[in-house]
Amino acid sequence: MATNITWHPGLSHTERTSFLHQPGLTIWLTGLSASGKSTIAIALEQHLLHNAYVAYRLDGDNIRFGLNKDLGFSPQDRVENIRRIGEVAKLFADSGTVAITSFISPYKADRDLARKLHDEAGLRFVEVHVDVPLSVAEERDPKGLYKKAREGVIKDFTGVSAGAPYEVPEKPEVYIDNSTGTVEDGVAKIVDYLVAEGVLKFPKPVA
């Protein structure tokens, strides 16, 4: 770690959220590949933006095209992938943005670290488990990834490879059974939780 750097404080989180009339937080969607995380995240982002909330979605595939393009899918690279995302999401949340992440994030320790980063900064972290049985995820398989994993083309594939388990969240703030529900159902569960917790209000306060 570099030692010749200095942290420069700017506006406080409270000042930013006061100007924006909204809280900054991270909504962390986790689940198997093809569970529907990205689809729900896109719809949630649109819903919040249409209701005047500043929101931004960080998606697993998109991040790997840029910030994390140097990482593969080994256990070590998966850990670093989620560590970086946790740091970026924290910055978005601190800015007063509703950060929405959709990553498999298979390891409990990595999700716990992302939560700890937010807790230490006084920021809210909402874990959302988007759940489907493995068989349902394989049936959907829009990218053909499960098929390639079963054929041995893709190594270290979550839920299929012996060395790449998915550790199910123990106490997520929001649980979504996405095997039969609609995208709207998933978004509604997240929004209903945030409203019940007093995090968001509809319509959005303007003063």
TrEMBL record:
Pathway: Sulfur metabolism; hydrogen sulfide biosynthesis; sulfite from sulfate: step 2/3
EC numbers: 2.7.1.25
GO process annotations (BP): cysteine biosynthetic process; sulfate assimilation
Top enzyme category: transferase
Family: Belongs to the APS kinase family.
GO molecular function: adenylylsulfate kinase activity; ATP binding
Keyword Nucleotide-binding attributed: yes
Pfam families, alphabetized: APS_kinase
Stated name of the protein: Adenylyl-sulfate kinase
Catalyzed reactions: adenosine 5'-phosphosulfate + ATP = 3'-phosphoadenylyl sulfate + ADP + H(+)
Residue ranges of every copy of the APS kinase domain listed in the record: 24-177
Protein function: Catalyzes the synthesis of activated sulfate.
Superkingdom of this protein's organism: Eukaryota
Gene name for this UniProt entry: MET14
Keywords: Amino-acid biosynthesis, ATP-binding, Cysteine biosynthesis, Kinase, Nucleotide-binding, Transferase
Entry-linked InterPro entries: APS, APS_kinase_dom, P-loop_NTPase
Species whose genome carries this gene: Arthrobotrys musiformis
